[in-house]
Amino acid sequence: MHRIVLQREIRSRASHKALSWFSSSNLFRSVHSLPFATVEAEGISGSQPAEVQNLVQGKWTGSAAWNTLVDPLNGEPFIKVAEVDGNGIQPFVESLSKCPKHGLHNPFKSPERYLLYGDISAKAANMLALPKVSDFFTRLIQRVSPKSYQQAFGEVYVTQKFLENFSGDQVRFLARSFAVPGNHIGQQSHGYRWPYGPVAIITPFNFPLEIPVLQLMGALYMGNKPVLKVDSKVSIVMEQMMRLLHYCGLPAEDVDFINSDGKTMNKVLMEANPRMTLFTGSSRIAEKLAVDLKGHVKLEDAGFDWKILGPDVEEVDYVAWVCDQDAYACSGQKCSAQSILFMHENWSTSSLISKIKDLAERRKLADLTVGPVLTVTTEAMLEHKKKLLQISGSKLLFGGEPLENHSIPAIYGAIKPTAIYIPLEEILKPTNYELVTKEIFGPFQIITDYKKDQLPMVLDALERMHAHLTAAVVSNDPFFLQDVIGKTVNGTTYAGLRARTTGAPQNHWFGPAGDPRGAGIGTPEAIKLVWSCHREIIYDFGPVPRGWEIPPST
């Protein structure tokens, strides 16, 4: 509750800060409209369907084919997306191909654009700080990726703070260079951050605003020309955000926005040949793109994320609450969601599991603290449960049943928050390991326990995992933390009694480790790593030493 009140206070202060600019911009054209918006979030319905367009070469366009999406809560057709097919990709290919390798700007070319993007960020941050605007995006997110209001608002809040962080001179500071003295007078080497030029961004459904905005703006800050594809199920959110960015001064030609299926987007990439592609999504598609694009990729793919509870049992209520949030907020549809919990035997004798169960069971569809699973059906999740329960010693701790009294369409999943216990020894068996560590992108987790002398077995289980995104080591024992952190690799690891697996705020790196293709998001380091490369320029003006003569051949 304290966190909610604090965020409201922050929004209130931000809205007062923005009021002068807000009023001078004549934002409210009517009581019910925003100047950039073409839809009303709560007005979208079967009788008043919304339309999502494409943006290419500075113009919004429709398509010969419209893909009709159904409301994930009631199955009613409510959004029409202008999806480009293989015959309609040429304008996007041409647009990307027009961008040179040296980008739209760099330290030697059009440096005033660094200032332009600082101004755009400031204006967009001010807009998102306004309650009417933040509420619009929060509710629009809820319509297409159903989650609680607070979870949806969290996306808007992080996006707003990110834009605020990169206002003013902060964009040009991303391109800060360095110099090293040379070997003789007139010689110096200078290192610069250089754009790739034409790039592509592909983002998933689960964070319709935060992921695409943070990656898109990072690409633009560094001087690239992106084509952006967001999962069509939720692309209406980013389409509206693009319109807000245009309203705040983003040149319409700087970004192309495409709606298509995966096959068509793959064709765009193969023909346009972007210099770098950022992909956030499933590991299977990530690996395919890495091959197709010959390694010119940065990836933030799936993660079977783990949490270890150390030997020190403290604040059981708090730890239980964090476990519930990590596993089941957004119905478990976070790439950072807690997939497996390793409990020290000291925790096994506490009330932790019963408290997690009580917290999970208070989640309800009415407030979207549990809701539709957009990529895994109910049948698939229940079948996975059935297979796990065939493992010796396994047992259902809670959940494992379909949600009741709902109208969620069958193409989506709808189950109660679920936890299954599996003995550690069974998890490690080769016949079980792949099944147990299969990521289920829904409200589903594995729980196990370990004895003091079994920590090496836990670490062995972690070493075998393929994806290394987030992790949590819940302990204030410095020797335990040192042991676990020193023998693991997850790129975003939380450590300490308050450690969590979820949370991708704007104030720290979020991304995997252990893979040279790994992408980060949100921080200056992430932006520079993903959206620029190093260029060294060695100045050597002379003068040539007096009396210099041509030396012998070498």
From TrEMBL:
Residues 123-495 form the Aldehyde dehydrogenase domain. Coiled coil: none annotated. Keywords: NAD, Oxidoreductase. One of its GO terms (biological process) is L-proline catabolic process to L-glutamate. GO terms for cellular component: mitochondrion. GO terms for molecular function: aldehyde dehydrogenase (NAD+) activity; L-glutamate gamma-semialdehyde dehydrogenase activity. InterPro entries: Ald_DH/histidinol_DH, Ald_DH_C, Ald_DH_CS_CYS, Ald_DH_N, Aldehyde_DH_dom, ALDH7A1-like. Belongs to the aldehyde dehydrogenase family. This is Aldehyde dehydrogenase domain-containing protein. It comes from Gossypium barbadense (Sea Island cotton). The lineage of its organism: Eukaryota, Viridiplantae, Streptophyta, Embryophyta, Tracheophyta.
